[in-house]
Design goal:
This protein has helices spanning 11-19, 25-32, 42-80, 84-89; strands at 2-4, 9-10. With 91 residues, the protein is mainly alpha-helical. The structure holds FE2/S2 (inorganic) cluster (FES).
Length: 91
């Protein structure tokens, strides 16, 4: 769905740049140019960014937590049995 007709920006475009770490309206605007012409789309675009920011932050948190847990598990396996990591990678 188009959010900004002046700049041909869609909801998908906004979600994509936010997934890359641009979580504020200003960052999204800098990347896509959304709402930098007539301004009619600004309120809608801001609301969309704010709603998506919560979801993206949550996704990024879970990705980081999963990565940290995997690293800890890997280290624990490494110290438990020296060949454990080898066993896991050469099955
Ligand atoms: S519709 Fe977005 S700046 Fe005009």
């Amino acid at each position: 769905m188009f959010v900004c007709l002046c700049n041909q920006v869609t909801t998908h475009d906004i979600e994509q740049v936010m997934a890359e770490g641009n979580l504020s309206f200003e960052e999204v605007q800098q990347e896509l140019g959304v709402a930098d012409c007539c301004g009619q789309c600004e309120d809608f675009a801001r609301n969309l960014v704010n709603e998506n920011a919560t979801k993206v932050k949550s996704d990024l948190f879970y990705e980081a937590a999963y990565s940290a847990a995997s690293t800890v598990l890997y280290i624990l396996l490494l110290f438990q049995t020296p060949n454990a990591v080898n066993d896991l990678t050469h099955f």
